[in-house]
Amino acid sequence: MDQDRAGDPECPGLLPEPAVAELRLEAVLHALSDPTRLRIVAELAGVGGGELNCLAFELPVTKSTLTHHFRVLREAGLIRQHRRGTSKMNTLRAADLAARFPGLLDAVLAAAGSCFATPKSTTH
Amino acid sequence: MDQDRAGDPECPGLLPEPAVAELRLEAVLHALSDPTRLRIVAELAGVGGGELNCLAFELPVTKSTLTHHFRVLREAGLIRQHRRGTSKMNTLRAADLAARFPGLLDAVLAAAGSCFATPKSTTH
Predict the structure, then answer these.
(1) Whole-prediction pTM
(2) What's the gap in Å between the CA of A47 and the closest CA on chain B?
(3) How far apart are the C-alpha atoms of B99 and B95, rounded to whole Å?
(4) Concatenated DSSP letters for chain B?
């Protein structure tokens, strides 16, 4: 099911990801149902269409757990990952998600914003 | 965390459920991340604010699995359940969800509608 464009010369270093038409609602909702993954998505949304290095996320989990979370997000189609040297760069697939499931990501991000507002200080 | 109003004379037979302020985004998204539960929610949305008996759902799962799914939905705050005699009646907590997470349920239902449109005939 993955659209593996890793060998595409136009997308060097792109890791496998589902095409827009292959995005599954259950997988997207499952990916978003974890607080760490929700926070990653919210941080990526916070930089607009920008990309963030995996190492840029200050989250209270081990590196291997974080790698797992990024993989779940990528395989569900929420984020795009490129290898750049020894780093992985991440972008939110906001336009793809809006095309497939209109309004869903915006509603989740708005809800996450109100949820994270209070307890955020406890993670620092 | 549950708001147990089971003994409330104004709500006879009401099963324990979280109050609106206690609704957790991750739990709601997790509850919605299963195709059977999504279908239950979509069917309840289809009857407006109406209630449906658990037995009214024609789903390809065992009775005990269905009971589990209803419980997950109730504990996440998506549905309200009342005992009536030997039956359990279910209603969607659409207004409560809209108050806590504006736009979320509508976006999920719209997405589910487009997903279910094609494969629905395979379940009959």
Answers:
(1) 0.86
(2) 22
(3) 6
(4) -EE--TT-TTSTTBPPEE-GGG--HHHHHHHHTSHHHHHHHHHHHHTTT--EEGGG---SS-HHHHHHHHHHHHHHTSEEEEEETTEEEEEE-HHHHHHHSTTHHHHHHHHHHHHHTTGGGGG-
Residue A28: name the closest of A110, A90, A94 by CA.
Answer: A94
Which pair of structure tokens corresponds to residue A20? Answer: 């827009």
Helix (H, G, I), strand (E, B) or coil at A90: strand
Residues B42-64 have pLDDT tens digits of 999 999 889 999 989 989 999 99
Interface predicted TM-score (ipTM) of this complex, two decimals: 0.84
Average pLDDT, 10 consecutive residues per value, chain A (124 residues): 53 91 97 96 93 91 94 98 93 97 96 68 41
| Mutate: best of B22, B29, B73, B96, partner A, most A CBs <10 A | B29
